[in-house]
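Lab notebook, bench 4. Still working through the backlog of constructs that have no structural model yet. Next entry is a single chain of 89 residues. Request: give me the structure tokens for it.
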Amino acid sequence: MSEAPPRPTAAEITIVEKRSKPRNPDSFGAELIVPNEVRLNGLPLLVPAGQSVTVHEIGIDSSDVVQVTLTLYARRVVIEHDETEATNG
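Model written out:
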């Protein structure tokens, strides 16, 4: 009997500000984050200049999942039919 294919899962998206020097906590705007890197499942991605990353509205008392829209550069795009083994049962 073959193993079932893995179930799809949600992606982990991390939006960070990479800095070469520590931020001075006493400076104006020290608490602001200016993102300059996007990671998908821990891997840094190329995002086209001028494209925004949108984190959609989330309700406080909601069980909704977080939706994120972003535009990325793709090294390779594959669109194909995937045949899986049929199970008798």
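Notes after review: The chain has a mean pLDDT of 83. The chain is about 0% helix and 15% strand. Flag for follow-up if needed.
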